[in-house]
Sequence to fold (670 residues):
Amino acid sequence: MSYPNLLEPLDLGFTQLKNRVLMGSMHTGLEEEKGGFAKLAAFYAERAKGGVGLMVTGGISPNFRGRLYPHASQLSFSWQVKKHRLITDAVHAEGGKICMQILHAGRYGYHPLCVAPSAIKSPISKFKPKALSLGAIKSTVRDYARSAKLAQKAGYDGVEVMGSEGYFLNQFLCRHTNHRQDQYGGSLENRARLALEAVRAIRDEVGEQFILIFRLSMLDLVEGGNHWDEVLKLAKWLEQAGVTIINTGIGWHEARVPTIATSVPRAVFAGITERLRQHVSVPVIATNRINTPEIAEQILAGGQADMVSMARPLLADPHFVNKAAAGERADINVCIGCNQGCLDHTFKLKRATCLVNPFACYETDLFLPAAEKRQRVAVVGAGPAGMASACYAAERGFEVVLFEARAELGGQFNLAAQIPGKEEFQETLAYFRHRLEKFGVEVKLNCKASPDTLQGFDRVLLATGVTPRVPQFSGVERAVTYQQVLRGEVEVGRSVALVGAGGIGFDMAEYLSEPHESPTLHPQQWLAQWGIDLDYEENGGLTERHSSAFESAREIFLLQRKTTKPGAGLGKTTGWIHRAVLKDRGVNTLIGVSYHKLDEQGLHIERDGKAQCLAVDSVVLCAGQESNRSLADELDQHQIAYQLVGGADLAAELDAKRAIRQAADVVAAL
Fold:
């Protein structure tokens, strides 16, 4: 399959981009690590080698008060230029281009010195900002210009000015956070004054032959956000002020609307960029949930944008562009939008990585060296850990046999892919299936490995996965497991009690409560569910949510032994979405539950010292899982050496990220 629009060069007049792919800004955490810039250089160089047309770094503050947190990166002084040179030299050596993003956090700054247009606390930071004085505003404009000039000296091909996602400039641009009464507040002209002054100051400082991107919030998704007419005016003013490209921003971080999670339909916001493109002459970039070359090509061929921004997809596969150009679509390791290794890590101040690509941000730490000796390796179990182990071992040059007791590859990922909003997991399964075939792994399905079948192998890796944990109470044999439900082995009634309110319990509650086909597969249904108005009848693009958001296919009770908040262990950046969906659908959440018995009357429980019976049709066990080590015990008896990988090693929650990373570590050490 060819992608002529995706691979077409883009002429910016003073420079040319070799294709229409922008690697969007993503903070990795390497920016603050000791020796992190050398690792960043390797990270970006790998993406440049992979064919990306233009990259944008993670956000770098123009001054101290604009930092995201006290030790976050800043570019304000000449002595800081040298470490940025490591990045630009590495990227240019691979034939790539890179811009530095200038990001002032504003009231999103997680420190007591944060500033904003008005002293209004953000819901995602515990620190109330100080309102900037007029003098401090003028100083901040100079800081933007100085940071851009230093970026130019460091060898960057341009800068991106962050004006979306609810950060500093976006805070000035919107009534939601700008309550000023001076020349920087009130009318749109006044609210836009700071952003335009910063852009003009940067352009004056760096000259005309330097890429200047402005990331404009085209859909705020917060009350008091801008109206479409205001967004359009801002874009035209930015064009006049000297920007080279306008990038799209969708939603503030505090917006209670998902914008990039896996449950968001692919390219659902591209129409907003298309609408703007009709009114400006500078190139515009579409973004959010663009993760395959087909989707990117469709956007560009349809005239919706001049470029597409992909950040996480290039974390998942640094060679995305080259593989698309070579017609190797099946070799692309597609981002599944899970956020588990990237944004969840970033917001915990951990180094980012990727669930499906554990080498991301570990380019200088994790390798798969060619095997010195061709050994025979047996991998038992074809879930994520087993498939990854088999692929990595084959890539190293080992002779690999993969044993799977069931009739299909995928293990728990096959079950996860059935949860509404997690359909993307099928992409990872397809990728691994292709890699197994490409590297000549011998796959034995419907084949239960035993000590006899594993004789004669040099190495044995057990990725036998997990079994559902069965809590002990009278009549528990009447219950069914989540695996039985998702495999279609049992029928579930109209009223259901879910025993366990961790990740499995939440997934099952969504699966069993969904009254229709997954909204992720139906963009208009999804937009109505979350109250998003792409026609912009109201400021911020919000509208009344459709009644379908509050429908449930079943009466559901989600039960938890602990008295802590249900779903506390869910993803930091996605957990709120799952909690919101279950709340919308009226799922009954009960904590501090003791289970007494299950009989024909229902599930007998106790809460706060009071006994009650839930007269439900079905009880589904979602109380976690245990490592499946039955084969390991047999191998111990036969004195056959092995290594445990994935859930067979550690069964705490369902963690494909940990399983795939462990597979890489184990195989790299063979």
